[in-house]
Predict the structure.
Amino acid sequence: MKSRNHADTRKRRIDRNAARRTTDHCCSPRKICVRCSMMKVVQHRFKAFRKAFGRNPLPNEPLFFAEDSPSPRTATGDQTIQQLRQAAEAAMVPLEPLLKFLGWHDQVLGWR
Ligand SMILES: [Zn+2]
């Protein structure tokens, strides 16, 4: 009886954790939604910005920036896609939904 209660309690706790995880997320780690993918990419680009310039980007500064520039300058289209692709790979999120989400999908196909 005692062990059964214990198992029930543990199960409830897991359910509660699962509920909390899904409260403001519409996805699971195995199938991440595009918004959460975007968040991960942005986090990755923040890190890249800090590495390049030694500080966080200001709100008006580009997260996709020219890497050969001493100050933050918006990257070219090709560089932007390249950086998005690298960030998606590093964050282990799918690239295609991000391109569609950003409305860049057709452009990228055009550049190929
Ligand atoms: Zn999500």
Q: What stands out?
A: The chain has one domain: 28-111. The chain has five helices and no strands. Residues 25-27, 33, 35-36 surround zinc ion (CB under 6 Å).
